[in-house]
Design goal:
The chain is built from 3 helices and 6 strands, in the order βαβββαβαβ. Strands 1-2-6-5 form a 4-stranded mixed β-sheet. It has a two-stranded antiparallel sheet with strand order 3-4. α1 links the parallel β1 and β2.
């Protein structure tokens, strides 16, 4: 029997994988293993709804996400996920564009990990990601 225990949170941080760009596991529940982008959005919405339900009123949430490049087209994962959070009931308070250039040096790496991943995976080299801030009103 499943018993749901509802915890209350004062801050929610969501940092989902960028759809299927990098596989993090072989688990079917892992958002990086979705069959397509629409399934990714659906499962992300479920996770965001769970977070909304646990978050106390007037508290804040952050969504940290970038975009995806597929078949010669930029897929705006960030904006699409932010809009899904708004539909759940979050109020958008701010958008911060985080510059990721040089990010690999802070982790002690000599090579540009993002460039290698892009060239290896055949996708666009993004040099930014978004931090969307929301409030549950």
């Amino acid at each position: 029997e499943f018993r749901r225990v509802l915890f209350r949170s004062q801050f929610l941080m969501l940092h989902p994988p960028y759809d299927d760009i990098i596989k993090f596991s072989d688990l079917k529940e892992d958002l990086s293993n979705c069959e397509n982008t629409e399934q990714f959005y659906e499962l992300f919405s479920q996770a965001a709804q769970n977070g909304f339900d646990m978050l106390e009123e007037n508290r804040f949430a952050a969504l940290i996400i970038g975009d995806k490049y597929q078949n010669g087209e930029i897929i705006p994962l960030g904006a699409d996920c932010a809009e899904r959070m708004r539909k759940i009931g979050f109020k958008m308070k701010a958008v911060i564009v985080k510059n990721m250039e040089g990010n690999e040096r802070a982790k002690g790496k000599n090579a540009n990990l993002w460039r290698w991943r892009a060239l290896n995976g055949g996708f666009y080299i993004f040099k930014h990601e978004y931090i969307y801030l929301f409030q549950k009103m």
